[in-house]
């Protein structure tokens, strides 16, 4: 049979399409496409020119600034300081609530020094780790604290910082023994880590068994140090801590400073931390507030900024940062400079 006479095979019938099942709920709308987040590149220090601070500041005032972030590298901090108009800076040289230590290499130190020279900062201090307790009766904790404290001094020396602010320790068992342990550890650290950075012991608010909440106790701690080392040690007075420990700068400004002068002397005052206190006078609590919004008040800060005895002392704020790292600091520094001008 020829191919022409072959009967064509019938086409297969198409299967009926299945009816869509009724949906009980409206179909979900497609998820919106996520917007691509474009992150600003890390700031690269410009060292080929001499950039001026973002905010012009008077030259006749002592260095005045804020605690500045070192996120992304310590060499970025001077440029962040310029953004708020800081001529003084406080930084952390490591993560302050971790024991992990770091060493500052030659390249990192050089980058920081170059950035600092190109900025408006004239005074820089570090604040040491919150974990350090040189007065502890626990030999393990005290030994670990001592090694961390030495490492902090090494980093400060490598960066060429002016000062290291350090809280005296907690004595835990006996106050006199704690002061002696604290002094012995400071002595060992300063002898093993010579360098240009001055140690500034920060007066505390007096919470718990902390040492150094009175001028007299701080003087006793320093007196325990060998005479040759005492010239490398000063104090940092925090106005919020002073309020917490019972020093009434708002109501007895002259009396507070007269007592300070008798116990320690103005030559020991290496730095002021200007913070208002969210906790009331004598509360023994360390709670910082914006300038003029706490229990110290504008009048006391105005007197500090206009006091001839304090005019040359570097001043740093540690007030709440708010929604960003710039706005509140910039506003507080402008306010303090306005106090100084009249």
What is the strand and helix layout of this fold?
Blueprint: E1 64-67, H1 77-84, E2 88-91, H2 106-117, E3 123-127, H3 139-159, E4 163-166, H4 175-192, E5 198-202, H5 215-223, H6 227-230, E6 233-238, H7 239-244, H8 253-263, E7 269-273, E8 276-277, E9 288-289, H9 298-306, E10 315-317, H10 327-341
Parallel strand pairs: 1-2, 1-10, 2-3, 3-4, 4-5, 5-6, 6-7, 7-10
Antiparallel strand pairs: 8-9
Helix pairs in contact: 3-4, 9-10
What descriptive keywords fit this protein?
single chain; 342 residues; alpha/beta; TIM Barrel; 8-stranded parallel β-barrel; two-stranded antiparallel ribbon; 10 helices; 10 strands; globular; disordered N terminus
Description:
This protein has 342 residues and is of the alpha/beta class. It contains ten helices and ten strands. An eight-stranded parallel barrel has the order 1-2-3-4-5-6-7-10. It has a two-stranded antiparallel sheet with strand order 8-9.
Stretches where pLDDT is under 50 for at least 5 consecutive residues are 1-53
Q: Whole-Å distance between the termini?
A: 120 Å
- The averaged pLDDT comes out at 88
What is the helical fraction, as a range of percent? 25-40%
CATH class: Alpha Beta
Strand content: 5-15%
Any guess at the CATH architecture?
A: Alpha-Beta Barrel
SSE run: EHEHEHEHEHHEHHEEEHEH
The rounded Rg comes to 30 Å
CATH superfamily: Divalent-metal-dependent TIM barrel enzymes
Beta-strand segment tally: 10
């Amino acid at each position: 049979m020829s191919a022409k006479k072959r009967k064509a095979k019938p086409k297969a019938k198409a299967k009926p399409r299945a009816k869509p099942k009724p949906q009980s709920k409206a179909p979900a709308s497609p998820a919106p496409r996520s917007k691509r987040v474009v992150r600003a590149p890390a700031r690269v220090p410009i060292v080929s020119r001499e950039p001026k601070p973002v905010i012009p500041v008077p030259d006749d005032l002592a260095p005045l600034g804020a605690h500045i972030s070192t996120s992304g590298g310590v060499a970025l901090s001077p440029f962040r300081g310029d953004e708020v108009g800081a001529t003084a800076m406080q930084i952390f040289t490591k993560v302050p609530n971790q024991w992990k230590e770091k060493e500052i290499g030659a390249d990192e130190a050089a980058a920081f020094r170059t950035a600092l020279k190109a900025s408006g900062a004239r005074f820089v201090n570090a604040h040491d780790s919150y974990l350090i307790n040189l007065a502890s009766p626990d030999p393990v904790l005290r030994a670990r604290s001592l090694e961390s404290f030495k490492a902090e001094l090494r980093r400060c020396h490598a960066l060429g910082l002016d000062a290291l602010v350090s809280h005296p320790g907690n004595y835990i068992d006996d106050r006199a023994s704690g002061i002696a342990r604290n002094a012995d550890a400071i002595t060992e650290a300063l002898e093993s880590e010579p360098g240009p950075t001055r140690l500034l012991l920060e007066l505390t608010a007096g919470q718990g068994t902390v040492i150094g909440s009175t001028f007299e106790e701080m003087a006793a701690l320093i007196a325990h140090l060998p005479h040759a080392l005492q010239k490398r040690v000063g104090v940092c007075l925090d106005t919020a801590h002073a309020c917490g420990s019972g020093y009434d700068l708002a109501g007895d400004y002259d009396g507070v400073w007269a007592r300070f002068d008798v116990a320690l002397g103005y030559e020991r005052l290496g730095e002021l931390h200007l913070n208002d206190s969210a906790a009331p006078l004598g509360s023994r609590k360390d709670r910082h507030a914006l300038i003029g919004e706490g229990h110290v008040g504008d009048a006391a800060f105005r007197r500090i900024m206009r006091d001839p005895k304090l005019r040359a002392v570097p001043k740093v704020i540690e007030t709440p940062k708010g929604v960003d790292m710039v706005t509140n600091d910039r506003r507080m520094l402008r306010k303090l400079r306005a106090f100084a001008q009249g």
